[in-house]
Amino acid sequence: MQTLLSLLEQGRSFIVYILSRILDFESLVSEHWRRGANRRTVLILILIGTIALYTYLQIISPPESFPVDNLISVEEGVSLDELSRELEAQQVIRSSDALRIFITLVGRATSVRAGDYVFKEPKDMFSVAEAITTGNFGLEPIRVRIPEGATTKEIAALFAKNFGRVNEEEFLRQSLGYEGYLFPDTYFFLPNASENDIIRAMRQNFDTRVNQEVMDDIVASGRTLEDTIIMASLLEREAHNYLDRRMIAGVLWRRIDKDMLLQVDAAFLYDLGRTTFDLTMADLRGDSPYNTYKFKGLPPTPIGSPSLSSIRAAANPIDKGYVFYLADHSGVTHYSKTYEEHLEKKRLYLGT
């Protein structure tokens, strides 16, 4: 009996030993599988990450030459295929095929919105797709200040520099005859504004401001609007404060009424681009219609866009009998009633 029990005990111990070895082996296999699975997972994740990074860099990310702040036009009725190719050509996206496939997969192939778009910073393909399918045009008004006295040529250059749709030569063509009538002011235009939009707004501003603020003075002066604007454009260049502008207006209107030459140097700046101290004797003898040393009366057109201050001064001159004036090197204006007095002041203040 004892021997049997001993054998059973030994048998149980052997079974337990065998089971424990089996369990140890199972644990070992499980550990090896787990370690292998982790390595496979890491490899799979690395592969997926590499593919995702490559896809982003080569297909989704913004091109290096992304047209920031440029107008991107989407024509009415353009197909998604045509638009995708055009956006790729303009460096807005990297792949026209990818954009077309993505928009089609999300069910927005018929939702492309026509219009002008502006992107303030580089956008990836998904952001571009969202913008053109939701009509997020990104158009924000651009602030432009037109300085007082600016010529149409200067105004054209300023707008051509800041607005993609504006061509300087076309602006000058459309504004022909508007010298002096494009009101100097601060304007806000959308980036897709055209030459016509800008010129029309500036002309309307001129009409509104002049009619509301100085037209009564112009009518009371007995001068025409055209003559007043030409005179105001001269005053804009000749003086920098309202009192001097009124005083110079008194001198110049008096010279016109007495059939004298105006002899205004500012007209040369408009015609020749030279200031008082750069003029030559040849300039003074030239046949330009803006040569007020040779031809009597006002120049044929304004020489820039005058401010309301200059227009008001032209309509409200102060006439104290002066027929000469000069500005010294400090910008101070001196007035004379006789030529002899004028020559003496030239000697005193200009050394000539």
Please give a structural write-up.
With 352 residues, this protein is mainly alpha-helical. The protein folds into three domains: 38-139, Endolytic murein transglycosylase (Dna Ligase, domain 1); 142-210, no CATH class; 222-349, no CATH class. Helix content is 55%, strand content 6%. It has 14 helices and six strands. It has a two-stranded antiparallel sheet. α8 (215-221) packs parallel to α13, α9 crosses α10 (242-257) and α9 packs across α13. The protein is elongated, with a radius of gyration of 40 Å.
- Tell me the structural class: mainly alpha
Number of domains: 3
SS strand fraction: 5-15%
- Give the neighbour order of strands across the main sheet: 1-2
Q: Judging from the principal axes of the Cα atoms, what is the shape?
A: elongated
Radius of gyration: 40 Å
Helix content percent band: 40-55%
Question: What is the gist of this entry?
Answer:
This protein is mostly helical. The chain contains 14 helices and 6 strands. 55% of the residues lie in helices and 6% in strands.
Main features:
elongated; mainly alpha; 352 residues; Dna Ligase, domain 1; two-stranded antiparallel sheet; single chain; 14 helices
Topology:
Layout: H1 2-60, E1 72-74, H2 80-89, H3 96-105, E2 115-117, H4 125-134, E3 142-145, H5 152-162, H6 168-174, E4 186-189, H7 195-213, H8 215-221, H9 225-238, H10 242-257, H11 266-271, H12 281-285, H13 308-315, E5 324-327, E6 333-336, H14 339-349
Antiparallel strand pairs: 1-2, 3-4, 5-6
Helix pairs in contact: 2-3, 3-4, 5-6, 8-13, 9-10, 9-13, 10-13
